Amino acid sequence: MKVTIIDRYIIRKFLGTFFFAILLIVSIAVVFDLSEKLDNFIENEAPLKSIIFDYYLNFIPYFAVLFSSLFTFISVIFFTSKLAYNSEINAMLSNGISIYRLLIPYMFGALVIAVSSFLVNNYILPHANRDRLDFEDMYYHGYRQNVTEINIHRQIRPNLYIYMETYSTISKLGRKFSMEKFDEQGRLRSKMIADFVKWDTTTNKWMVRNYYIRTIDDSLHEHIESGRRLDTTLYVYPEDFGTRDNIVETMNLGELKDFVDEQRLQGADNIEVYEIALYNRYSNAFAAFILTLIGLSMSVRKMKGGIGVQIGFGIALSFAYIIFMQFSAQFAIGGNINPLLAAWIPNIIFFWIAIALFFIVPK
């Protein structure tokens, strides 16, 4: 099982083709993106330094990770087809190298891509996405994100609920505020009503104005308390309101886990979206092995029509994989499938497709 010249040759071809393909598609994407957004950059007076370092330097890893699985597949098909049509695969097999032994350098190349993609996606890309999205808000959309939420109902702790009629992310102020606390039997124990609640940046606490608190003890006696101002802790923070839809893109793996736990505790309605994003951090990396095996199985032998036909089949199968991922995610969001299962179903199905294709390859 020692590393041979053929192993190094295949790994070099695999990774070289992959990184060249990523570089090529990223270059094309940058050109198209710039042509689309140039007018907005000029209109909003975006500095050239910010365009290069704050936006496109962070845009490149985002786009590379987004299409890493697709180009893993295409790279395997492209260079393996060339090996097959140059009769290099036949020469390897006729000299005693089995198809199973030939698979080892392919899996090693997939391992390099999977680990690199996982590390970049979870620990480097979130910070880059933060800068990129902030730049887009300022110089592409032309505004900082300003969201006013209405009719907020949220569980912030077990048996503890808050309500706000409106909340502004700019002023960090919520109007018509109420907070209810229940016991384990679901009986109301206390309720606070206030004109508004505002985040105090000096104390890092919420300031409640013109409040009225009704407390009910075990004997069902009520205690009434009121006042003009009260500093309190609500177990939520201003950034928990008015979050952008792609907030998970700005979180590393640890932050995303904590965020999902917090949203689950608060009883968020769209918790499945965040859970799928978390589980996809793992399943997307594993996809490199599956797509490498499928790509090898489809391109290790010659086909009528040449390399173009194999690449065409490969792209069609890749898009089928991506579409299947989207379908399973939508089913999970609708509550029909467990989010963990939804994130892994495409890998499970295409894993068995890969196994079937590999075992029908002439050995």
Write structural notes for this entry.
The chain is built from 9 helices and 6 strands, in the order H-H-H-H-H-E-E-E-E-E-E-H-H-H-H. The chain has 363 residues and is α+β, with helices and mostly antiparallel strands. It folds into 2 domains: 228 residues, no CATH class; 96 residues, no CATH class. The model has no long low-confidence stretch (mean pLDDT 84).
Strand content: 15-25%
Helicity range of the residues? Answer: 55-70%
- Total helices: the number is 9
The helix-strand sequence is HHHHHEEEEEEHHHH
Cα-to-Cα separation, first versus last residue: 19 Å
Question: Which helices and strands appear, and what pairs or packs with what?
Answer:
Elements: H1 5-43, H2 48-66, H3 68-85, H4 88-94, H5 99-140, E1 148-157, E2 160-168, E3 173-182, E4 188-200, E5 205-216, E6 222-232, H6 253-265, H7 271-299, H8 307-333, H9 339-359
Antiparallel strand pairs: 1-2, 2-3, 3-4, 4-5, 5-6
Helix pairs in contact: 1-2, 1-3, 1-5, 2-5, 3-7, 3-8, 5-7, 6-7, 7-8, 7-9, 8-9
